[in-house]
Design brief:
This protein is about 5% helix and about 25% strand. It has about 240 residues and is mostly beta strands. The longest helix has 10 residues. Keywords: Cell shape, Cell wall biogenesis/degradation, Peptidoglycan synthesis, Transferase.
């Protein structure tokens, strides 16, 4: 999939911003990631998805509806080179968290106060800013500094649905624990709990602090979208900052 989002002004804090509700972005400086609390001065340009068209609705079925008890269909798995399209009409930011001071490896915040108790969840990841954000119904409820894929095992770019959740997953390739794992690709890319330390990397997965991974695991469901970019940002100029 082509690049997802226009870059925002450098004045906004270090967050990926794409998806149902997204934050700003900043460059990592050494092992400290600066994240100003006030990002209201972000650029006023509208967010865009460069190539992804809105999904076409399927025609109404003439067959009988499925029973209410029927389980939802499992989302189709995608390889790292098969990202999905994003509907640009869904890219709306309503609130970003106010986080004072620098964001260091191992740091995270989680604050659901003032956010809707239910609604679509989208996770956004900016490899350049080394941050992950989680949004519910347009409200940011969590953010963390991440680990990502090393040069020989890069993390994929694009949008991917969560297709598997396993709180006690163990890698069958590296025999390593991956707590609160959430699968993004059929070729083994997950978000999972890690010891997030400066200078470390992964084999393509997105590592977050394990305590944060547990909270994230608790608010997602199969089919929720994770969007990974490398510095592509979305306007948050009209988003509320804080509760």
């Amino acid at each position: 999939m082509a690049a997802l989002i226009k870059a925002l002004a450098k004045s906004i804090g270090p967050k990926l911003a794409i998806g149902l509700a997204l934050g700003g972005g900043a460059w990592a400086a050494m092992h400290v990631l600066e994240r100003p609390a006030d990002r209201a001065a972000a650029a006023a340009s509208d967010p865009q998805v460069e190539t992804a068209a809105a999904p076409v609705s399927a025609p109404a079925s003439t067959s009988a509806p499925a029973p209410a008890s029927a389980a939802p269909a499992k989302p189709a798995e995608r390889r790292s080179d098969q990202p999905m399209a994003i509907d640009p009409r869904a890219l709306t930011v309503k609130r970003v968290l106010a986080i004072d001071g620098p964001f260091r490896h191992g740091d995270y915040v989680w604050d659901e106060k003032g956010a809707p108790a239910s609604g679509p969840v989208i996770i956004t990841i900016d490899l350049k800013a080394e941050t992950l954000s989680v949004f519910r119904a347009g409200y940011e409820i969590g953010a963390a500094v991440i680990l990502y894929g090393a040069t020989d095992k890069p993390s994929p770019l694009g949008a991917f649905p969560i297709t598997q959740k396993d709180a006690d997953h163990v890698s069958n390739l590296y025999d390593a624990p991956m707590p609160y794992a959430q699968r993004l690709t059929s070729d083994g890319v997950f978000i999972h709990g890690s010891d997030v330390e400066y200078g470390r990397g992964t084999h393509g997965c997105i590592g977050v602090p394990t305590a944060f991974a547990k909270k994230l695991f608790g608010v997602t469901k199969l089919g929720d979208i994770v969007v990974i970019t490398n510095g592509k940002m979305l306007n948050v100029g009209k988003a509320q900052v804080g509760a």
